[in-house]
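Section handout, structural biology tutorial.
Before the tutorial, make sure you can parse a SMILES string by hand: atoms, branches in parentheses, ring closures as digits. In the record below the ligand is zinc ion, and the chain has 351 residues. In the tutorial you will relate the predicted structure tokens back to the input. Do not try to memorize them.
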Amino acid sequence: MAACKFIAFLKKQNGCFDFKIFKKDYLVQLSPNKTSISYHASPNDTAFLFRDSIVANLALNEYFYQDVHEVSSFNYFCQLLEETELGITNENQIARLTLLLHVSKSLIDDQVLWDNIFQIIPTLEIDDQIEFIFKNDLIDLFNGIKSNQKIVRKINQTIISIIGLQEVKFDYSSLKIKFFKFSISELNGFAGLDCVYIGIDAIRRFVCELRQDFDNEQKLKIFLINMFRLIIHEICHVALRKVVKNFNASSPTLITQRKQQSNSDSFKKNAQIFEAGVLCEKIFFSERIDWALSSKSTRFNFAYCENFFEKLLSKSEAELPQFDFNKSGCIRDTSKFLFMAIDYSRKIQML
Ligand SMILES: [Zn+2]
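Predicted structure of the complex:
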């Protein structure tokens, strides 16, 4: 309903549109609250619900409706809503709606960036057949993570700390990895319904920017460590949403609620990191690490990181080692959060 109203509204506008007017005149009869997205048996049917939720989320997002926006930047969004009116028919539609659902809750404080993202959405295309450097190693890593009980336990531990349940029931074996092309290579990946989306252009850029004096084997290791970080981060978002049975859940909200109920000091301390994926990265690596930057630093201890990573992936039942951040010589990723469930490199903020 909200999607349908938005199409009608946008078609009447010229040049710029004021979403506050749409919110006040059109959306007010509909649910003003954030909608919950429950899971249907088919991802296509679940993704169909994203259409209304994106519009409803935008109406609740002051960062979005505070400014007027260019009609032309939203033409494709309208087209996407129209072409999916009777249902979702392909992977690209699911991926584009998924990314927009995350974007609709973002903290972007810049009208141009909002408009640019909506404008370039049609450049997002799923392509699982495309070849790129280290592709097979990446697929092996993804399968290794899913089937490694020690790793799965740590991700579950993150989710338990956020929602306060005793156990997490999530079928990690059903997770898929999907590759996408996109016009901005800074988009590393994002969380899907039952999958993790990974950007091919971001992979190429990451590998290209690695130190030239690294040999291929060293480049592969750093690449895989960074992919490990990205995969566990996004899997945490995917699993968390599935466990709370709401794909429109936001980890900052869940964490704030839990913080208010919790008596544990350590949880309160960790909850300062207000995003589930980052909390998960910290559980594995003590800090949120910028691996591209770290590998360029003279303090970077490659041997230590490589050894830690081997232990992380080993199938032995020994508990996972504690990552020693100081010894690693790594550099923290201190960039500000604009997006939930989306992983991107710093430059995206300057788009
Ligand atoms: Zn995240």
